Hints:
Blueprint lengths: L1 H4 L2 H39 L4 E7 L1 H9 L12 E7 L2 E9 L6 H16 L4 H4 L5 E6 L2 H10 L13 E5 L16 E2 L6 E2 L3
Parallel strand pairs: 3-4, 4-5
Antiparallel strand pairs: 1-2, 2-3, 6-7
Amino acid sequence: MEAIFGDAGQYQAVLRRLREIERSLPLIAHAMMISQFKVCLTLAIRKRDDLKLERWLQGYDLKYALMGRHGQNPELVPDAFFILQYNEYEYPVFLEVDRGTMTEERFVSKLKLYWRWWREERIKDTLGFTHFRVITVTPNETRSENLRIASKEANTDKKGSNMFLFAADKNYSISKPEAIFEPIWKSPKDDLPKTIL
């Protein structure tokens, strides 16, 4: 060891750094999935004359927007929020990126908060609207389907809602970004393919 690291203190420092890197890798992968979605969304919008990205918030900007005038920490900070303007209509959308590291129960508890936000019009004062969609991107179809089925529990009647949409990130790509607006999404309400709009 000493021949490689010089002393035991350097060895311990290297081990600590490796552990830090190991802990940060899932966060980097998560951030990359969000970035890939945003890039594909931006590229897909450029191919259309009837669609505009009005707003994109994530991270601290989104947290700050959700805090509102009272400065209280929000009970939930989505991965991103954006507004699509389609002709004269606005479509507010929250983005959740799930890498399969969270239990289904915990994920459904997040969706229950969204449902409460919608039902109680909780974000009208902070973000300025009452209706919205929550789209979830997963790393594969199996995870997408499992979350979609589990999310039937998120709304009051437990029958699922079209407010929640799920898709695997392999369904769109930089080479085919327009697929984001195709019927690649599924809701817990039924098995029919849907679009974001």
